Amino acid sequence: MTTISDRRDTTDQPGGGPQSRLAGTTYLLRLALRTERFTTPVGVLVVPALYLSTAASLAPLYPDATSRAALADGSAANPVFRILLGPLRDTSGTAQIAVWRVGAFALLVVAIMIAATVTRHLRGPEATGRMELVRAGAIGAAAPLAAAAITATAAAVATGVLTGAAAALAGVPAPAATFLALQFVGAGLAATGVAAVVDQVVTTSRTAIATSAVVLLAAYLVRGIGDAVSGLAWMTWLSPLGWAERVDPLGDRAVSPFLACVALCAVGLGVAAAVGRRRDLGAGLVQPRPGPPVARWPISILGVTVRTMGGSLVPWMSGAFAYCLLVGLLTDSIDDLLGASEAAGDVLRDIGGGSGAASSDLVGALIDTVLGIMAIAASAAAVSVVGRLREDDRTGRVEVLLATAVSPGSRLLAAAATATVTATLVLLLAGVGLVAGAAAVGGTGPGVVDVLLGAVSQLPATLSVAAIAFAAYGFGTRWIALGWAAVVLDLLLGPLGTLIGAPQWLRDVAPHSHVPADTGASVPAAASSILVVVAAALLATGLWALRRRDLT
């Protein structure tokens, strides 16, 4: 009689055949299909939707060849735009310009999304112990890696196909749209290989996603340097995202860079499979450091919350500063970039939403717009704190914590305090980045105090959005998705409400539509006070509900 353990030992034997090592892959794919029914489809639709909205918004801004040529000349002369977006190769229509506007940065977004998909199905189950239960059945040693790779590849292909279809619908010729699809598929495949290797090195899913994101961001910057600096174009060949860019759907339409991405994926999966067969389940090549032998004094729930969540919140703050620093470097050339298109300037002023003196010029409107977007990012950072609470609930760490003199309510309040400080730092660092970037290039615009006040004025609306997630957590961890939905709706109806043509009554639902970023103008005290009261009421609701439910 063959037992489950006998079948498992057979699949793990070094001499076992490929079929035995891949046994159960189909079952893991079915599991992935159920667990990814929301996250991956939403991620796949982001880039096609972004492309269509970008193409629609650009159509009235660059209606003729003169305005498009002026955009190309300004962008080609600006190294910051080349780093962010790459070179503009085709100005024959707004659909082609939209490919450039979305292109390089969207490749990074897709790559990080695909890497996170791999980690959710590979390192994630190992870190939480679920993989031990899965492998207790007739599941081969290589089946989890194969299932994660197939899921990520399917997501990459779907993203590429839908983006190519969106481009063709907007007016890009069919051959260029086909190679645009290959470009995104190549970026996704390269990210799959990178994430598969990273998941063998580290031991936690959060660290794995962060490491993969850092590797891909470094590849993005290396590609940008190759595009921006004359004589360093060869550096794009050092980056997998540079390979994807060199597919060049609007130019050479090369296949060899796509094949390089496929090769990186194959090599990465091969290395991951080899390492996975030689390590313990749940372990990694780099083991986490043990904690200090003596507890820090005094011990408080707030201190524990900051220490356990601080590392995951640093990327939000550093990313806000780095992005705004790059935007600040554009302030000295914004008039040249948009001066040929009055409509572009009008749209920028409308999105900025400001009415003060500082917003009457393009630099002030640009700063208002960026601060409005950063306010949404601060909301997302605060909501991610609630996500960490849910993770602690699922892994059982909260039971150890609450076995001490810590109540569920004090734990939620400590998380709320951490989220508030994080959102504040994201906004302040965004303002500092804008000011520092403008000062580095000698750009003119609002003063330091005005920019920082404009950033901090977004805090009440930001906290009211984050408070939705805290209230939802009080009723159950499955409701936390409402917090992320609130972030997305706030973005669409707040900073982007004018762009998408939302009616005013609908825009009034978004907290940030009541307190738009407006550097140089007075803070609307009444609206800010009401938003603070709303945030406090939502947090109180979460505390009330939390005391009346089981934590699990």
Automatic annotation (TrEMBL):
<feature type="transmembrane region" description="Helical">
    <location>
        <begin position="210"/>
        <end position="234"/>
    </location>
</feature>
<feature type="transmembrane region" description="Helical">
    <location>
        <begin position="482"/>
        <end position="506"/>
    </location>
</feature>
<keyword id="KW-0472">Membrane</keyword>
<feature type="transmembrane region" description="Helical">
    <location>
        <begin position="451"/>
        <end position="475"/>
    </location>
</feature>
<feature type="transmembrane region" description="Helical">
    <location>
        <begin position="412"/>
        <end position="439"/>
    </location>
</feature>
<keyword id="KW-0812">Transmembrane</keyword>
<feature type="transmembrane region" description="Helical">
    <location>
        <begin position="254"/>
        <end position="275"/>
    </location>
</feature>
<feature type="transmembrane region" description="Helical">
    <location>
        <begin position="176"/>
        <end position="198"/>
    </location>
</feature>
<keyword id="KW-1133">Transmembrane helix</keyword>
<feature type="region of interest" description="Disordered">
    <location>
        <begin position="1"/>
        <end position="21"/>
    </location>
</feature>
<protein>
    <submittedName>
        <fullName>ABC-2 type transport system permease protein</fullName>
    </submittedName>
</protein>
<feature type="transmembrane region" description="Helical">
    <location>
        <begin position="313"/>
        <end position="331"/>
    </location>
</feature>
<feature type="transmembrane region" description="Helical">
    <location>
        <begin position="526"/>
        <end position="546"/>
    </location>
</feature>
<feature type="compositionally biased region" description="Basic and acidic residues">
    <location>
        <begin position="1"/>
        <end position="11"/>
    </location>
</feature>
<feature type="transmembrane region" description="Helical">
    <location>
        <begin position="139"/>
        <end position="170"/>
    </location>
</feature>
<feature type="transmembrane region" description="Helical">
    <location>
        <begin position="38"/>
        <end position="62"/>
    </location>
</feature>
<feature type="transmembrane region" description="Helical">
    <location>
        <begin position="362"/>
        <end position="387"/>
    </location>
</feature>
<feature type="transmembrane region" description="Helical">
    <location>
        <begin position="98"/>
        <end position="118"/>
    </location>
</feature>
